[in-house]
Amino acid sequence: MTDTATAAGLDAATLTDVLRVAGSADFDRWQEQIRRTGGCADPIRLAGSTKTIDPSTGTVLHHYTTEHEPGGMLRIACGNRRASRCPACAWTYAGDTYHLIRAGLTGDPDKGTPHTVREHPRVFATFTAPSFGPVHNRPGNRPCACGTRHDEDAPELGTPLDPDTYDYAGAVLWNNHASDLWRYFTIYLRREIAKRAGLTQKTAHEQSRLSFGKVAEYQKRGAVHFHAVIRFDGPEGPDTPPPAWATLDLLTDAIHAAAARVAVDVPPAGDQPARTLRWGTQLDVQPIGAFANGEDITEQAVASYVAKYATKAAETTGTVDRRIGNKEALVLLEVPDHPCRLIEACLDLHALYPERKLRDWAHMLGFRGHFSTKSRRYSTTLGALRQVRADYRAAQQRAALGLPDPDDDPEATTLTLAHWTYAGHGHTPGESWLAANIHRDIQLNRETAREELPALLDLEGAAA
């Protein structure tokens, strides 16, 4: 068995558990449950029952219980957005984020935005942190300041040239206040737009709206930066065209001016001096092209880029994706030196700035904001996308059970009584390996279908 386990990339104990699960009498049903979760790596296990009743007659139309399920439990997806926790659920989250961002760029009436938003001024802006000390990098064709030409995957990239002089306290305090910097930016942006339009803020607001969707990303040095789609709309949002004065150039100029105005003061505390936190100088603002007419940044590229980083967090810098209680844990977790020092800075600063909750967010290198956010009128919401998926599955279930569809017959109401209890989460080692393979199969099948779809549409067009 040892040779077989090695060939499959498994240890003997995991292979034994794989054979146990695959040889069980209810393996087919277990597979069906896991496929419905998309191959979730850490499913929630529930025990309980549901009963669907016709309230007018008291007739039981359907009864379900987990007593006959594998292990007496129903498994549902954990829904975690982090790829480090659950690749399957993160993949679904990234897909939802892609459709949310894309709907705000190309328009999608089903998702709350008309196709005419493609004609609105739109930019893709990247806001970075300032320098906290020189780090190893790849400056074009030149060598790093250390004299070495680093490879793309060199582990020292992003780490300080001199860790002893690097401003670790400033770095984590900047991360911790990054959401405040963004909030002030959105306030100043509206003021700068009104100023450039020669209008009062009230008049500018009456004639136009700003919509945005953004995502946070960690640079290799552990500093957060934001990628944002910013769009000019008319007075009623995406359904109305922006006024003639709301041009792409005005928007771009206002973004630069607003970012330069933002300043967040941090008072002195203990051995820490007073600080004024600002955006870094590397602000990049590029127009988004509707049909790639010579523009470098296209709608497809922006949506894909934002979705890619919506499932990543500080673990990309070498830290962990769970809270850390003390410095001793850093040794046990074998956290690399640079993120280790950033985490230690958070733990040390917590007593000086208790209201900032730096200890709770030490594993995030101080950042405590949402990783993806959007303004109310940008497009649809992640909750709405999840609800569409849930409604579709509920309709499939009703059809399979022969239950009435309320959309077809509004008077055909049913009453569902449910009782659920939490029974744990996760997989055994063998189940985990099998679930990962199920997720890979699902992902491969969907990607293959997506690649083949254009060819099928071309064939249908030729036949017509």
From TrEMBL:
Pfam families: RepSA (PF20199). It comes from Streptomyces chiangmaiensis. This is Replication initiator protein RepSA. Gene3D superfamilies: Tetracycline Repressor, domain 2. InterPro entries: RepSA, RepSA_streptomyces.
